[in-house]
Amino acid sequence: MIDLKFLRENPEIVKENIKKKFQDHKLPMVDEVIELDAKARQVKSEADELRASRNKLSKQIGALMGQGKKEEAEEVKKQVSNNAVRLSELEVQEKELNDKVREIMMVIPNIIDPSVPIGKDDSCNVEIEKFGEPVVPDYEIKYHADIMESFDGIDLDAAGKVAGNGFYYLMGDIARLHSAVLAYARDFMIDRGFTYCIPPYMIRSAVVDGVMSFDEMDSMMYKIEGEDLYLIGTSEHSMIGKFINTINDEEKLPYTLTSYSPCFRKEKGAHGIEERGVYRIHQFEKQEMIVVCKPEEAWDWYNKMWKNTVDLFRSLDIPVRTLECCSGDLADLKVKSCDVEAWSPRQKKYFEVGSCSNLGDAQARRLKIRVKGKNGEKYFANTLNNTVVAPPRMLIAFLENNVNEDGSVNIPKALQPYMGGKTILVPNKGKNGK
């Protein structure tokens, strides 16, 4: 959510930003907000005058009563009573107007950074840099579910009977590999100075409204029936929510946290949910990182955060690239975002495994996450988030880039301590037909 004062003073900049995000249907909202805000401020001004008058008249009544001028005091009381009725009406109007202003402001997109490429959808995203040499071996790379099945490592049929499409059972070495990646990612981020955290897996609607757009909420979040609770789609939501309604000492910033959590997503309208495999699923686990910092530090942290993900993937022998998200592919709260994509030797292309975002003060403004400076001045913090690793997709990249011609899978040195010292995984002979 952008600053209302900024919108009021720079309506053309806000409109141009809306156009850059290809959301022209929102253009009338800018003028509507300005009109509603003017009415709200006018109503507030009248209400403030009546409150001041009430205090003045109350003192006048006391003075008149002290002078024995009862009739004059009664006339003033009538005026106070009439003013009270009007004040009550104004207070209702003010709340209604402010609520409407906030409702519209919640859907007006954040101002994107000037460096963001302009484009309508993800087809206009721009490659930034490649890390590692993408290799296509001279032998066939099997589909990731088939590789997992060769280790007796996945049971989609049983999961379908228990929970439906978009769920899975991981078993044996594949399940261990899944947990090893998460444990390694946890320690990787701790070694980089982040504080480890396990957050709540459910959040209230006030936090949901603060961390994401309504469109995202509708397509992602599972609501707990009969309660003001939602299952998290990513631990970023509850991690940023940790700071709701807080005033933080400037010298304690930045807060750098890395969190583990399961994640739950409806994947509404997503293609491929019926596909066999674990690329797009309703339930998965993830290691996340978030930063709450001063505005002037946000861009340094943005670059550090996506580099952390790149470094982690490269330490596991997985080639990756970074991709700049264009204006039309940015969620409304984001100032700038880049995706980290891993190489798929089977598909001979890259696919998304993480996303790093700078949200400016949009989430902080919604959640009232403020900072108290040395001079006592208060301002909104900046928030950033980034995926460290999400093992279902990470497992796809890991297996495809580390599988050998005989079906065995190499375990990179960095991951070996988390796999009981194993250097290689050998598939089940029955599955391989050997």
From TrEMBL:
For ATP, which residues are the binding ones? 265-267, 352-355
List residue numbers at the site (Important for serine binding): 387
Q: Per UniProt, what is one Pfam family of this protein?
A: tRNA-synt_2b
InterPro entries documented for this protein: aa-tRNA-synt_IIb (IPR002314), aa-tRNA-synth_II (IPR006195), aa-tRNA-synth_II/BPL/LPL (IPR045864), Ser-tRNA-ligase_type_1 (IPR002317), Ser-tRNA-synth_1_N (IPR015866), SerRS_1_N_sf (IPR042103), tRNA-bd_arm (IPR010978)
Please give the GO cellular component terms listed in this UniProt entry: cytoplasm
Enzyme Commission numbers on file: 6.1.1.11
Locate the Aminoacyl-transfer RNA synthetases class-II family profile domain: which residues? 143-412
Report the SUPFAM superfamilies cross-referenced here: Class II aaRS and biotin synthetases (SSF55681), tRNA-binding arm (SSF46589)
Keywords assigned:
Aminoacyl-tRNA synthetase, ATP-binding, Coiled coil, Cytoplasm, Ligase, Nucleotide-binding, Protein biosynthesis
- PROSITE patterns (UniProt xref): AA_TRNA_LIGASE_II
Q: Which GO terms describe its biological process?
A: seryl-tRNA aminoacylation
What terms describe the molecular function in GO for this protein? ATP binding; catalytic activity, acting on a protein; serine-tRNA ligase activity; transferase activity
- Metal-binding as a keyword? no
List residues binding L-serine. 234, 265, 288, 385
Per the record, the coiled-coil ranges are 33-90
Which major enzyme category is it? ligase
The protein in question is named Serine--tRNA ligase
**Lineage, broadest ranks:** Bacteria, Bacillati, Bacillota, Clostridia, Lachnospirales
